[in-house]
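Checked the freezer inventory, then went back to the computational side. Two predictions to log before the end of the day. The first one is the construct we discussed on Monday; recording sequence and tokens without edits.
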Amino acid sequence: MHTNLSRLGLAVVLVCSGIQAQAIGRLADVTITDRNTGATLPVYFNKGEYWVAGAPGARYAIAIRNKLGERVMAVTSVDGINVVNGATAAWGQTGYVFGAHYNYQITGWRKNNSEVAAFEFAAASDSYAERTGRPNQVGVIGVAVFKERVPEPVALPTPMPYRQERDFKESRADNAAPPPPAPAATAAPQKSMGAAAPGTAAPTEAMAERSRTADAATGQSYARPAMPSPKLGTGHGQREDSYVSQTSFERLQSQPNEVITIRYDSRENLIASGVIVERPGRMPNPFPNSDSLSYVPDPPARRY
């Protein structure tokens, strides 16, 4: 059976416990939880981006809490891949539908309505994105939040009594103006199908050239020095129980009302790249009283 995914979502069945601090988002709170320890990962803000440090081999969850008193859809991606259908992520795809003020933890790649393959931090070379030939976006989690279009109630007209309705129609017929004369026929304009003017590039070629230039610039800006540990990605872990059901959802608009982006890597790499700044601890002093000059004090007075 084929369905229109732009109007469908997955209604979450389970509600998770309270979301701790370090949440990001205006319409929804988003946190990343280490499922091995149960701790919410600290969020680091650096150069306009939010980061979390993952531990290789640790299972994690994307915890989302709807802050609104209405339903929202969260189209969620990991490493540039939609976590529900496995397609290269786009805003118009399906996602999870949250009731008013609901919490839920997305714990893995959705396999069916009752199972997921667990999210787990792994070397980028062993990530699901790399293994499916899509390594370019490894290291990022995204949540696109959509509000719902709620149909407005239709006001039904109150029927008039028969006599009043007949008098109203007769009055309108008496006061109606005569119809205007038919306009003279004119030739319909024809659309020009000619080629682009000399000296100008076709729109598609110009866009392609701009795209190639932007890609080259992006590749240079994201080049980074060698890191102390392999870049972190998200693997395709063991299957686990996770229950959802399908529901209908019509978006208020085609663009997300909010996009929440969280990047991640190992702690060692985040320290090396300056995202995490470790303050040096106080160095121990082998002679802590060497700075104070003193002599042997007198003993305490005798007590008689």
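The second is the one RB wanted added to the comparison set:
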Amino acid sequence: MTEEKKSNIRSVDSPGAGRRRVYWMFGLSGLFVIALVGIYLMLLSGQAPSGAVIKIPSAATSEQLHDSISKYLGESYAKKVSRLVALRGTDLNSRHGAYLIEAGMSPLDAMRRLTGGPQEPLTITINGFRLLPVLEEKVAARFDFSQDDLAGVLADSTVVKPYGLTPEQALALFFNDSYDFYWSASPEDVIEKIGSHYLDVWTPERKAKAEALGLTPAEVMIVASIVDEETNAKEEKGTIGRLYINRLKKGMRLEADPTVRFAGGDFTIKRVRNPKSVESPYNTYIHAGLPPGPIRTTSVETIDAILDSQPHDFIFMCAKEDFSGRHNFAVTYAEHQANARRYKRELDRRGIL
């Protein structure tokens, strides 16, 4: 080997050249680490400008999640959270639900909430719904299912039968109350929870009281729905409920004005003039017995007022002429006519049609 070649080999393998390679490697590694730290800090920086509930539908895509975050919390924040979600690699199909991103939450914490945190519960309040389709619409609007989905479940006799109800009586299942759910709940989940509350209310003690009145729980619910339409006065509810039960036992038609309004679908009527003009199984001026189902949702308080009501002989009632929302009760038709005349005169005097 020539001296020149030996010199070149020594030059390549010299300690100085090796050190330079090491320095380059350390330098590149440092730059890489700095770049990673920069990207990481960029992703972690920033805060949610406000609170928002982010919903992940079933079969959601990463684009849908990004759009939802962007809609409520801005594009910049959405990009950071979406990238962190992608880095974590969570299957969004397993995260069907609604999640609260709190104001001030970092992108990292938001990612953790969306990919592994608990759902945010929602509260459904039932209060005085008169029509089942309206209730179905309002309830379904709060969930990730449609009104038709819920209506289909409630129309299934096998679903409501365990509660002693028919599809026509499905409205009775919903007590006026508040219920907590998750947005991802199915219609079956909702009915199971609502139904569980129904069964909790109808204890053996309450069932025994209903039986003593000659009624089933479902029938008590129907009476209660009429009572709630008749008055807001708590002290009258038991008296009115017992009055209608008296009429049932005597074989008399209930002749309840609220059932006429329900039958005609017009709840603004203040003065029912031709009650027999509306043909409907719910019109108790035409048909004997109870309507096929409730005419509104009712409360546990009204149920108990009826079940615990004191016996009396009243079979007639008429709104008081002072428009207090309370009633004059009567045992005889003559007494009732006198009450009705006073009320009619006041209606005429006030020009109420």
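For RB: The first helix runs from residue 3 to 12. The first strand starts at residue 52 and ends at 56. Let me know if you want it refolded.
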